[in-house]
Specification:
Chain A: Belongs to the binding-protein-dependent transport system permease family. Chain A: One of its GO terms (biological process) is transmembrane transport. The complex is a heterodimer of chains A (303) and B (322). In chain A, 67% of the residues lie in helices and 0% in strands. With 303 residues, chain A is mainly α. Chain A has a single domain, classed as MetI-like (MetI-like fold). In chain A, α4 runs parallel beside α12, α5 crosses α7 and α10 runs parallel beside α11. The two termini of chain A are 42 Å apart. Chain B has a domain of 96 residues. The chains are: A mainly alpha (303), B alpha/beta (322). The interface between A and B is large, with 33 and 47 residues.
Chain lengths: 303, 322
């Protein structure tokens, strides 16, 4: 073998030994590096992590029971005992907000995860197989997108009945076409890449090409819009809660808290202020993080 | 005579042009319009022609990456146009491809190791240690270092990437390699390295090449026989030396006269072709080249010449030699 290679100059001169710190930089590591440099993105990540920690350790952190009523203490202003005050039933608002983080994050991430799984599967199938499959799936997406999303969610919930779980399902359904279209367009462009032709030339099956080549190369945009979609999903869940179609009393859902307290907006503004702030902060956190991820993962932003 | 490794008969690829409200077929782009040739075991057949003449389409049809519209492809005597998708997938073990663009043909998210391992996985090498060993071996065969395996494609130069592409094609020990302009995207200084590598590998592994290129010098260097394509047809096919020394077809003559000769004293009659290549969706009647041929006569405009043996081993499709 050595003889046959005689004519081939080695790519590197032989004396150039393997560099001591030879590290392969994977595209993900590179993205993390540029994400870290983005201050706003880190702020977003911190806010999101903060709420995640609140949600996980709610039982340990919360000073009271979220459903412990005390009618003598109703609508108390913020004080050392009740940092965020109390609501119309004398429940501690801080406690309810901490538990509310659990619900909002749960609904946000789970519904988006559902939309991603269903939407991606449909989008990949539509993009890869094309023809009538594509036509049918794309028309379904078009129909879903033709409705204003919150209206569609209300319709779905009114069919299924108002509950937190059904609100989650409704939000998942209305986000399916977003991810479906995203994946479909990614597949359409990745499919034409030459390394896909190369994969076919090697003799790979369609399923392997889809899972090992097309899906990983479509992951970056899913992560970005997934993060941004969590923010919208949280707002939508709050909106459904506000309308009485989501979480039911006494579940400490932020939108529901807003709705229940809106009669006291003049006399006890803290009952409305803090749940509103919580929603705003979480959504802001997810949005900042999503923007940062987009900048980090978009190859065109690289220098 | 021994059986050629590949024999192609009257291969055609027509891409439909759809138009109108109902998407009816209103025409066809005749990218490849009846091509026949054979490749003997162990030889290199060069395929040259300007862009759009159908040479890459021909190469892709041999692997059935594009389905032929008509014609037969025999590989070791077996007609592969009849194979089912599944059978064809197994057949791909025997025939591999090296792509033109070494940047686009490697998945940017996979390490070199994964890229080279994949053909082995697909073709049923189950033992992981065996695969790793083979990846190392492949990298060394193409002149890279085994520790390059952990790197990503973007960490290599164009020439190195093309070596990876070649290693991938070699992974399954194919008999035939279709090299679709493998050096066109590389610097001239790197081109010769990659060409030498291809030649060394041919000797070592007894490979057969279909070498597609538009650079006449490159093709002459590597090919045993050369076919010249024009507008979806092979117009001339001969031994490499013969073709370059005594081109018969007026198109080949014009092409060769355009090759620059590095000699200031050298004066040469250049055949300057007039006009453009006609559209393959509406090729001229008769000889496809007659619209630009300096030696065309009446018959050329009406009768399409067939590829005939004008001299032993020298095929030409031209009415001048009938």
């Amino acid at each position: 073998m050595a003889e046959a290679l005689h004519n081939t100059p080695p790519v590197l001169p032989p004396e150039m030994a393997r560099p001591a710190e030879e590290k392969a930089v994977s595209p993900w590591k590179e993205a993390w590096r540029s994400f870290r440099k983005n201050k706003l993105a880190i702020v977003g990540l911190s806010i999101v992590s903060f709420f995640i920690l609140l949600a996980i350790f709610a039982d340990l952190i919360a000073p009271y029971e979220y459903d412990a009523t005390n009618l003598r203490n109703k609508n108390l202003a913020p004080s050392a005992e009740h940092w965020f005050g109390t609501d119309e039933f004398g429940r501690d608002i801080l406690t309810r907000i901490i538990y509310g983080a659990r619900i909002s994050l749960w609904v946000g991430t789970l519904s988006v995860a559902g939309s991603i799984i269903v939407g991606s599967a449909l989008g990949i199938i539509a993009g890869y197989y094309g023809r009538w499959v594509d036509a049918v799936i794309s028309r379904i997406f078009d129909i879903l997108l033709a409705f204003p999303s919150i209206l569609l969610a209300i319709a779905v919930v009114s069919v299924l009945g108002p509950s937190l779980r059904n609100a989650l399902i409704a939000i998942a359904i209305i986000n399916v076409p977003t991810f479906g279209r995203l994946l479909r367009s990614r597949v359409l462009s990745v499919k034409e890449e030459e390394y896909i032709t190369a994969a076919k030339a090697i003799g790979m099956k369609d399923s392997r090409i889809l899972l090992h080549h097309i899906l990983p190369n479509s992951l970056a945009p899913i992560i970005v819009s997934g993060t941004l979609a969590v923010a919208t999903a949280i707002i939508e869940a709050a909106a459904l809660g506000f309308l009485g179609l989501g979480a039911q009393a006494p579940t400490p859902e932020w939108g529901k808290m807003l709705a229940d307290s809106r009669n006291y907006i003049i006399d006890a503004p803290w009952t409305v202020l803090f749940p509103g702030l919580a929603i705003m902060l979480t959504v802001l956190g997810f949005n900042l993080m999503g923007d940062g991820l987009r900048d980090a993962l978009d190859p065109r932003m690289k220098n | 005579m021994t059986q050629p490794l590949v024999k192609v008969e009257n291969l055609k690829k027509h891409f439909p042009i759809k138009g109108g409200l109902l998407g009816k077929q209103v025409g066809a782009v005749k990218a490849v319009d009846g091509v026949s040739f054979f490749i003997n075991k162990g030889e290199t057949l060069g395929l040259v022609g300007e862009s759009g003449c159908g040479k890459s389409t021909t190469g892709r049809m041999l692997l059935r990456l594009l389905e032929p519209s008509d014609g037969k492809i025999y590989f070791e005597g077996q007609d592969i146009t009849e194979l089912s998708t599944g059978e064809m997938r197994k057949m791909r073990r025997e025939m591999q491809m090296v792509f033109q663009d070494p940047f686009a043909s490697l998945n940017p998210r996979h390490t070199v190791e994964k890229i080279l391992e994949e053909p082995l996985i697909v073709h049923g090498v189950k033992d992981k240690a065996e695969r790793k060993r083979r990846v190392k071996e492949l990298l060394e065969v193409v002149g890279l270092n085994s520790w390059h395996a952990k790197r990503y494609p973007h960490q290599f130069s164009g020439g190195q990437r093309q070596r990876i592409g070649i290693a991938r094609a070699l992974a399954v020990n194919p008999k035939l390699i279709i090299a679709d302009e493998p050096v066109s995207a590389l610097d001239v200084s790197i081109q010769s390295q990659v060409l030498n590598l291809l030649q060394d590998l041919q000797k070592e592994f007894d490979l057969t090449y279909l070498f597609i290129a538009h650079d006449l010098g490159v093709v002459r260097h590597i090919s045993d026989r050369v076919g010249v394509m024009y507008l979806g047809n092979i117009v001339e096919l001969a031994d490499s030396e013969e073709l370059y020394d005594e081109p018969m077809h007026p198109y080949t003559q014009a092409l060769l006269s355009a090759v620059p000769i590095p000699d200031v004293e050298h004066k040469k009659d250049r055949v300057i072709l007039q006009g453009d290549v006609p559209s393959p969706s509406n090729p001229p009647k008769g000889c496809p080249f007659h619209t630009r041929c300096p030696q065309a006569f009446d018959t050329c405009a009406t009768v399409k010449p067939v590829l005939q043996e004008a001299k032993p081993g020298h095929y030409v499709a031209c009415h001048l030699y009938e």
